[in-house]
């Protein structure tokens, strides 16, 4: 399912604003690589000085080690939620045949990245993970699968780097495909979305939920002509960013809807609240009476609400008749999660799409799922870490081995280090043959390493090592043969998780 | 560092062989999505029937859940080795500005995938992880970093899917950049490569090692003209796939080398063996005497061998004067790992490259590293799993919740499941409102789930649940409030690792 990140679409790239770190530089002449490198080569290099811009492409970025530490924690968190629900995982190529993507995204198709025709097949970078999933299910003849897929997707959209809106970004998708009983997998998807957002400390959230068929029924009840359903649906979809007045204007002036019909729509799309309360109101006020599809869909939603109640997550849901979701392929429930204290838009969204797999073959495989907009969660977590001034460890080094005397042969450290590595202990040392004691101690404490192993001449003579617990500052000299056991004992006593306070 | 997978280069794509699973199909008309969908839309869909090929692009493939289970285990294994050495990780975009890649790969540049010019920057898919790493180091002004990067790279090469040679494939790179003492980071790279290959059950391996400057010195000693060093080096690089006779022919007939010079080269490139033995032989036979650079490089290699010996991995190394490595940018030691029982070519390779970062700025940052050719390791592991008939679990579900009476309301299962999920237990159930007991038990045992939780009418009346250990077949009825504790107790007693026997 695709989380829409296309609030303000534009594919113009002519101004070429350079986001992020940008350095203009000249290609420097490479240092002589080898003494024996022929003179002629050197000359060529000197001549080829050429100005170029040192940057990543527009809308993309590098992730630095501290950012990666947070991201890895976040991904592991989401992955373990997916696994808790028994999901398997798949991987698909980063590009698909262009034909595979054609006709799936409506107007958004203009945002698809194409590969150059270099002789061969015509390919495009994937735009989301849902269409490749549907292609996968059809191609492998699968009748049922519950899978997650964490991968990057590509959109030639107008990037807003500070808001977590990129041209290259991760999605974390979970989908259940297969013929199952009414609302059973749908309820699990909503439940799982709640569990994921609860597991990440991003603040309070609400899951807005609606049903495509109910929306269509409401349009019919209000008197929208059948051929205007999808375009009016698109207009309703803008209600989270635009006032009703502007949406009404679009409906009437741009889309030629009768003003009275629009006013009848207003009455419906302003309705939202606790699922049980709003359901009672719709029934009490007989808002949908007389429309068979509407009544049937409301009954189906009642089943969903009962399941969500049994699982304890119904109170997270707001039944919201204004929720429309942009994509054409939804056929059942639609839902999206909003962080109530943040202006980042939806952080997760999805719905039921029963027709997509059938577009690739002769077999329909009804599906429901959602996508976590993990870049937005990441930018919230990153802000949080900055606010709390959390110093994020970039690596997971447990031990730093120092020699306290510059005369000691480096091989003495190498023997110790190899032994610790063999025991599976994350160990570093200084890449110097004769390092200063002070420099090594500085490096160890800069890296927030919990244990230091020290050798001096005395230790070498007595076949022993000093082991220091950096938290308690206690240092102990043990026999050389007890090194690994001692280090493991200290490591066991230490809680090394330093990023995990970002998560509940 | 790039593991060369380009044994037989070809960018012709005209024959369009369709590797792997290929299905020709027609776009089926989507089922009516909603009863209220306008008639006109349906008609349009029916008209747009168009033949298309249901496949992934040439040289790419989908990974299925059992493949992903092996891959995930393999990646976690490699990642923990990288972390054991204190490496941080970074991420770079999948495409770079075309200029960033220009002039880095020599002849192989023709294999680079370009993105279509859609107005904006001209970009190309990354060809390896080394060049983006050098760009990253230069752009962020980094003076020292030890990082790993696990990601896919792209080459418009002639794919051989059965041999693990693809157009889209993973590399696992480890590099140490920074000014350090002679051979210290180099030794760590060789050591780490050994540790990774030992940690994965892929059979015996040998690490061939040579030095670019020694090779250049040998060429000089043999009388190769300085401007022919690189092209003769390329010819030597083919010795692992071609006989000396053919390589000699290429040198003399294609590259215009004097026959006597070629014969002198033969004497050198046939030399290989244990580092200490070959070093002694070179010195005893005075093979490099009189050439200053050769003598200096041999002394440096002695330092490396001493470090490797101290760490206990020197016996894995074969000092091999025929090893040349294709890429131009190496400036120091070069090495590659070969699985001795397999014909898959090198499974890991790397070397020192002191000039690459300097090509992006004014600062040289000397670097050494390697790349694990993980697709080849994966294909060995996959064969192994097939040979041993290991049934690979696709997910990590721990508990399956069944209702033994079709009349019980599904919400009873939902309450149990939500409780288990809340306790962090991986739980599944059947997506049916009134499932048959037999079908549920079949599903649970198909999925190799270690614990089953069962409820019947008796259990509901007595506020209890039955918990079954699927390994021992023991079933116990416990109070409803004891459910989570009982399940956790059984899970603790079970070794759930089922793929880990592929690894040591």
Detailed description of the structure:
The structure is a homodimer of 504-residue chains. Chain A is an alpha+beta fold. Chain A folds into 4 domains: 1-28 and 57-203 and 361-392, Bira Bifunctional Protein, Domain 2 (BirA Bifunctional Protein, domain 2, 2-Layer Sandwich), CATH 3.30.930; 29-54, no CATH class; 204-340, Bira Bifunctional Protein, Domain 2 (BirA Bifunctional Protein, domain 2, 2-Layer Sandwich), CATH 3.30.930.10; 399-502, 3-Layer(aba) Sandwich (Rossmann fold). Helices cover 36% and strands 19% of the residues of chain A. Chain A is built from 16 helices and 18 strands. Chain A has helices at residues 39-47, 65-84, 98-101, 130-139, 184-199, 212-222, 229-237, 244-254, 259-269, 275-284, 292-311, 374-387, 410-422, 437-446, 457-461, 483-492, and strands at residues 23-26, 51-54, 88-89, 95-97, 123-125, 145-154, 168-177, 205-211, 272-273, 317-320, 333-339, 346-353, 367-372, 399-403, 427-429, 451-455, 464-469, 475-479. A 9-stranded mixed beta sheet of chain A has the order 3-6-7-13-12-11-8-10-9. A 5-stranded mixed beta sheet of chain A has the order 15-14-16-17-18, with helices on both faces. In chain A, a hairpin with a 6-residue loop joins strand 11 (333-339) and strand 12. In chain A, helix 8 packs antiparallel against helix 9. The longest helix of chain A is centred in the N-terminal third of the chain and has 20 residues, at 65-84. Chain A starts with 22 loop residues before the first strand and ends in a 12-residue tail after the last helix. The model of chain A is unreliable at 1-49 (pLDDT under 50). Chains A and B meet through helix 1, strand 2, helix 2, strand 3 and strand 4 of A and helix 1, strand 2, helix 2, strand 3 and strand 4 of B.
């Amino acid at each position: 399912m695709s989380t829409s990140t296309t609030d303000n679409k534009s594919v113009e790239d002519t101004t070429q604003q350079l986001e992020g770190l940008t350095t203009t530089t000249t290609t420097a002449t490479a240092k002589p690589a080898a003494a024996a490198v022929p003179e002629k080569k050197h000359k060529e290099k000197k001549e080829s000085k050429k100005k170029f811009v040192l940057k990543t492409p527009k809308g993309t970025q590098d992730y630095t080690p501290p950012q990666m530490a947070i991201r890895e924690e976040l991904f592991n968190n989401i992955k373990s939620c997916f696994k808790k629900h028994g999901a398997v995982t798949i991987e698909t190529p980063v590009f698909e045949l262009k034909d595979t993507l054609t006709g799936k995204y409506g107007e958004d198709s203009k945002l698809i990245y194409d590969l150059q025709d270099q002789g061969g097949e015509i390919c495009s970078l994937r735009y989301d993970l849902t269409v490749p999933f549907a292609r996968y299910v059809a191609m492998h003849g699968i009748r049922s699968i519950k899978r997650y897929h964490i991968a990057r997707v590509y959109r030639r959209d107008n990037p807003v780097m500070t808001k977590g809106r990129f041209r290259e970004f991760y999605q974390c998708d979970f989908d259940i495909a297969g013929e199952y009983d009414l609302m059973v997998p749908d309820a699990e998807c909503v439940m799982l979305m709640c569990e994921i957002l609860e597991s990440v400390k991003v603040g309070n959230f609400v899951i807005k939920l609606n049903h495509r068929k109910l929306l269509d029924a409401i349009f019919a009840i209000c008197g929208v002509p059948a051929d205007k359903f999808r375009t009016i649906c698109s207009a309703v979809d803008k209600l989270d960013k635009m006032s009703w007045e502007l949406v009404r204007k679009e409906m009437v002036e741009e889309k030629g809807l009768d003003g009275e019909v629009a006013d009848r729509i207003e009455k419906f799309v302003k309705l939202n609240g606790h699922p049980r309360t709003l359901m009672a109101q719709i029934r009490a006020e007989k808002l949908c009476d007389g429309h068979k599809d509407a009544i049937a869909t409301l009954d189906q939603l009642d089943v969903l609400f009962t399941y969500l109640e049994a699982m304890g997550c119904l109170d997270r849901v707001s039944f919201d008749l204004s929720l429309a979701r942009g994509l054409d392929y939804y056929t059942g429930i639609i839902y999206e999660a909003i962080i109530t204290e943040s202006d980042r838009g939806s952080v997760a969204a999805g719905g039921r799409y029963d027709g997509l797999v059938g577009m690739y073959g002769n077999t329909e495989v009804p599906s429901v799922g959602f996508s976590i907009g993990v870049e937005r969660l990441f930018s919230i977590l990153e802000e949080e870490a900055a606010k709390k001034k959390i110093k994020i460890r970039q690596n997971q080094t447990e031990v730093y081995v120092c020699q306290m005397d510059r005369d000691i042969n480096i091989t003495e450290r190498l023997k110790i280090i190899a032994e610790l590595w063999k025991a599976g202990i994350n160990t570093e040392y200084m890449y110097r043959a004769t390092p200063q004691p002070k420099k090594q101690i500085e490096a160890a404490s800069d890296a927030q390493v919990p244990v230091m192993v020290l050798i001096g001449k005395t230790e070498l003579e007595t076949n022993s090592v000093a082991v220091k617990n950096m938290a308690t500052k206690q240092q102990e000299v043990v026999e050389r043969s007890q090194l690994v056991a001692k280090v493991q004992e200290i490591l066991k006593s230490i809680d090394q998780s330093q990023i995990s306070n970002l998560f509940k």
